[in-house]
Amino acid sequence: MKATILIIDDMPENIKVLGETLKKHGYTIIAADSAARGLSIATTKLPDLILLDIQMPQMDGYEACQRLKANPQTASIPVIFLTAHGETEQVVKGFEVGAVDYITKPFNKAVLLARLTTHLELSRLHRQLEERVAEEIAAHKKKEELLVRQSRMAAMGEMIGAIAHQWRQPLNTLSLLVQDLKEAYKYGELDEDYLENTISRSMAAIMFMSQTIDVFRSFFTPEKVKRRFGILEALNQVLSFLESQFKSHGFTVTVLGEEIFIDGFLNEFKQVILNILSNAKDALLEHPNTNPTITITLERVKEGAQLTICDNAGGIPEEIIDQIFEPYFTTKGEDKGTGIGLYMSRMIIEEHMQGRLRAYNHNGGACFEILLLVFEDQLTSQSSE
């Protein structure tokens, strides 16, 4: 199907000659005898190409072209100027306001048809390219959203495992207290003091479990706005979840450094810390030694704040260390790892918080270094506190 061409010219004879020529070659023609009418038709009809006269009363072709390009509905329609002179100055001005070509009057039929064919094809290819780019962007966004969901589910799995460890002791306490009630009643020991003590210990255990759930819920609450938070405070919140697991395996966790406040997404940052600490835990379990250790250091550097988390589990094999941040890359096996935790961690630090995350081996273990920008106003406010 041939394209639709809009001719805007205040001379009826020009419209007639152009229209008849183009109709013979299968083009659909619509016409306007003024720039204002042409703009209105272009917006409603959305032609495939516009032939626009330069010299017109009230509004010339240059202004009309500028308005066409300023309107999102018509901005992508190619415009070819019709000019009676074709001086360099006029041609340059036409390109400056957005025209793709020009044709001098009286026009050469072969030249006119050739240029129309060329620019219609270029326009078609441009639209196809835009559609392809839009499809690729949509596909990338969909993939990224899937990775975010998978990463969140993996993090939730880690957290639920941590909660299970943390709840084991208070649940055991509650179980013993309930059993003791029966024994106390049986042997006549169930007096007011005994009951108060049992209730107090039970409520303490229940309160601990409730607080664990509250932190868990807040951990996964989406954040749309950055806020100021302490790096060590966020770190300690994550460590509190993993504490019982680390203790049960005999891990020594050392935290060095003083608090530094930054602006960022707290929950996303905690997810990064959880991913790195979980990887360190898995590495230490896979490569046991007599003194399994995780050392965490927070320090000020020239660029801002640097948080380094190191283990002594033997390090990352050099042949794969450049791949660990790639999506779906894992050495843990399908039942233990998704391969998206470190990928999402880098995305959060580098894209959401404009920082840097890298990994390297040091002193017989793996280190993950997080660099976060701390701006001058933050340093000033912190030094005055």
Write a brief caption for the model.
This protein has 385 residues and is α/β, with parallel strands linked by helices.
Give the helices and strands, then pairings.
Blueprint: E1 4-8, H1 12-24, E2 28-32, H2 35-45, E3 49-53, H3 61-70, E4 79-83, H4 88-96, E5 101-104, H5 109-186, H6 192-219, E6 227-230, H7 231-248, E7 252-256, E8 261-264, H8 266-286, E9 293-300, E10 304-311, H9 341-352, E11 356-362, E12 365-373, H10 376-383
Parallel strand pairs: 1-2, 1-3, 3-4, 4-5, 7-9
Antiparallel strand pairs: 6-8, 9-10, 10-12, 11-12
Query: Pairing-aware structural class of the strands and helices?
Result: alpha/beta
The SSE string, one letter per element, is: EHEHEHEHEHHEHEEHEEHEEH
In angstroms, what is the radius of gyration? 35 Å
Shape designation: elongated
Which percent range fits the helix content? Answer: 40-55%
Oligomer: single chain
Uncertain regions spanning at least 5 consecutive residues: 376-381
What is the average per-residue confidence, as pLDDT, rounded to a whole number? 84
Report the portion of residues in β strands: 15-25%
The total of helices stands at: 10
Largest sheet properties: 5 strands, parallel
In the sheet with the most strands, the strands line up as 2-1-3-4-5
What is the CA–CA distance across the termini?
72 Å
How many beta-strand elements? 12
